[in-house]
Amino acid sequence: MLAKIGMRTKRAEISTRLESSRMEMSAVTGWLSKVRYKIFGREADKGLLFKIFIYLILIDAAYIYLKPVLHMVTSMVKDAPDLLDPSVNWIPRVIYFGNLQDAWEWLQYPKAFGLSMLLSTSVALLQTFSCAIAGYAFARLKVPFKPILFFFLLITFIVPLQLTILPNLVFARVLGVLDTVVPIIVPALFGLGLKGALFIIIYRQFFSTQPKELEEAARIDGANVFKVFFRVMMPLAKPAILVVFLFSFVWTWNDFYLPSMYLANTDTPPLSLGISRIASMIREQAEISGPSIFTEPISMATTFLMILPPIVLYVFAQRWFIEGVERTGIVE
Amino acid sequence: MTRATKLKAAMMEYVEGTIFIAPWFIGFVMFMGFPLGFSLYMSFRKVNVVATGMTSSYVGLKHYKDILLEDGSLLYNDLIPFLQKTLFMVPVIVIFALLIAIVLNQKFAGRSLFRAIFFLPVILSTGQVVSELLTQGEGALGFMSKYNVSGLISGNLPSTWATPLIWILDSFVLILWYSGVQILIFLGGRQTISNSAYEAARIDGAGPWATFWKITLPAMTPFVFLNMIYTVVDLFTFPTNPIIMRVRDSEYGQFSALIWLYFLIISVFLIIIFILFSRATRSQRMTA
């Protein structure tokens, strides 16, 4: 009897020991899987390894984008001794604003800035508006020969600017508006101009994803098509408007091809044309007297002065812009 | 009576549509349609610029014949290397943009900062700015010269393909600068995939790898297509593109013929992409 009890207790002991070792085992595996989850992630996109991978890609790519900008900023404030000294690579010993001053004068900055501003703002405003109208017509309204018109729109998108530039130049000369900003701004009034077709397509995409019920309700309430467009659809289209405006502004600001055609003989060119003129001047000089390290800070300073305004604009609009891109689903 | 009002209402709808499209159409005729027709007409003529203006005489298909058959230096010398480069650049740009867009879609600390950085190219990458920024040899990748990659490539490939490939690797960074808008398009496109699709996949035990190939990529196919078209159009119409640079210094009639041929080539490229895409979506639909 006693022996039996002893046996039983022994067995119980063994079983408890087994149990505890099993528990230990499960603790180990649990810990292991916890580590595994930490590293690889329970859903594979929350793990450490994945995070490291993400940051690796992002930091690499961000470096690619930021390096030239940083290079620009540091090299434009270098003075002559810093330029000559090979030990000064990234961080200049003194911050020298002479280059910026020269660039400011060469570009005739206040005037050129005003001209660029006038061009970009008016083109952007006009395109934002006129492309919305055309985009709405393509998305929702009954238009005779719509497929053919849409084909024309696509043609406009893919035709190189150079194909149509000469007739347009002749056109401008006949009307006596050559060397003014008019031939660059007027096409924007009609929803053409730089990348106008792309903006119409963006609006078309946006409007065709909106629910039809809103318009129908407004129609039943007796609103005509203009009211529907201005009171219902345009307020809805805020994200698309922002995206188009910003794109249009920045692209017009940076474009130098159209100014180089239409504004070739003006004394103060817009900034984009100004820096391309300075660049070619430097290049010519380099051909005559050999390349010089002193020209680089100047060209960097001119570039800086040119891209500063759109960057400031972007810093302010950035938040809405990204949201806008996500919400419009820009294209579908 | 009701029929008449219905008819009238339908008419009204067309009138409204016409009013809305009219400004664009007028602009199209003035700034695009007429100039296009004019340049096509001029491509069959020889243009002389004289003091009083221009005179031109009919030469038929002479310009086209010259460009295509007689004088190879007009088109082929620049076009063929350019097409080779484009063939490499388009996939590089599209794949890079897709990768970045997917990564930017994850939730992680500092996301908004990275997003702001990745839109920099959109702000800066038109024309002069990039070339200014990247002229100092910033375009090359560091490891290229270290491991003599270009030596390896030119040793193993015929030179017609080695040259563009080396060029691509040499200006890799430059290429990435052209992918700003493409990243935006992919980011927008990624938002159209509903989260429930991912949840369902997760419940079924699909890993991230399978999820990417089975859900993300198929849903992104239209955007890949769109980006390819955008990239091709962008590359072909870029002002510093060699063929477009060339047209500046020829005579206007020949210039027109050249750029019309070039335009036809772009169209062929786009049609090829379009056919590939419609094949891809059809096979996708069949397997689904």
Q: C-alpha Rg of chain A, in Å? A: 32 Å
Lateral arrangement of strands in the main beta sheet of chain B: 1-2
Query: Can you summarize the main beta sheet of chain B?
Result: 2 strands, antiparallel
Average pLDDT level of chain B: 77
What is the overall number of helices of chain B? 15
The structure class of chain A reads: mainly alpha
Mean pLDDT of chain A: 80
The helix/strand series of chain A, from N terminus to C terminus, equals HHHHHHHHHHHHHHH
Rounded Rg of chain B: 25 Å
Quantity of strands of chain B, as a count: 2
Order of helices and strands of chain B: HEEHHHHHHHHHHHHHH
Distance between the termini of chain A: 84 Å
Terminal Cα span of chain B: 50 Å
How many helix segments of chain A? 15
Can you tell me about this structure?
The complex is a heterodimer of chains A (332) and B (288). Chain A has 332 residues and is mainly alpha-helical. Helices cover 79% and strands 0% of the residues of chain A. Chain A has a domain at 108-328: MetI-like fold (Orthogonal Bundle), CATH 1.10.3720. Chain A has helices at 2-40, 48-76, 80-84, 98-107, 109-140, 146-158, 161-175, 182-189, 196-209, 213-220, 225-236, 238-254, 257-262, 271-289, 295-328. Chain A is flat and about 110 Å long. Chain B has helices at residues 2-42, 62-70, 72-105, 111-118, 120-124, 128-134, 142-146, 149-156, 159-170, 172-177, 180-190, 195-203, 208-237, 242-247, 252-287; strands spanning 45-50, 53-58. Among the domains of chain B are: 1-29; 71-125 and 178-287, MetI-like fold, CATH 1.10.3720.10. In chain B, helix 2 (62-70) packs across helix 3 (72-105), helix 11 crosses helix 13 (208-237) and helix 13 packs antiparallel against helix 15. In chain B, strand 1 and strand 2 (53-58) form a beta hairpin. Chain B is mostly helical and 288 residues long. The N and C termini of chain B lie far apart (50 Å). Chain B has a two-stranded antiparallel sheet. Classes of the chains: A mainly alpha (332), B mainly alpha (288). At the A-B interface, helix 2, helix 5, helix 6, helix 7 and helix 12 of A face helix 1, helix 3, helix 4, helix 5 and helix 6 of B.
